[in-house]
Amino acid sequence: RYATPDGGAAMYPANPNGSDDAIAGVCNPQGNVLGLMPHPEDAILPHQHPRWTREPARAEGDGLVIFRNAVRYAASL
């Protein structure tokens, strides 16, 4: 969920797509299908971050962790 600093449902611009109830992601009851609105695939490389030239250099983007976790989970099956 897109949230305000106090945990409430965020409105635009903190909720950039204007989703109902500030929903940012959904999954099925089994937990094996995920739909996520902040697109992690758009944050795999450090230069994909909008402030990449103004912040300390990063080795990787913030979105990479979700894919690493998915691979780790699949390998454990």
TrEMBL record:
- InterPro entries, per this entry? Class_I_gatase-like (IPR029062)
Source lineage: Bacteria, Bacillati, Chloroflexota, Chloroflexia, Chloroflexales
Question: Which GO molecular function terms does the record list?
Answer: phosphoribosylformylglycinamidine synthase activity
UniProt protein name: Phosphoribosylformylglycinamidine synthase
Q: Name one Pfam family in it.
A: GATase_5
From the UniProt record, give one GO term of the biological process aspect: purine nucleotide biosynthetic process
What GO cellular-component annotations does this UniProt entry give?
Answer: cytoplasm
Q: Which SMART domains match?
A: GATase_5
Q: Which Gene3D superfamilies match?
A: 3.40.50.880
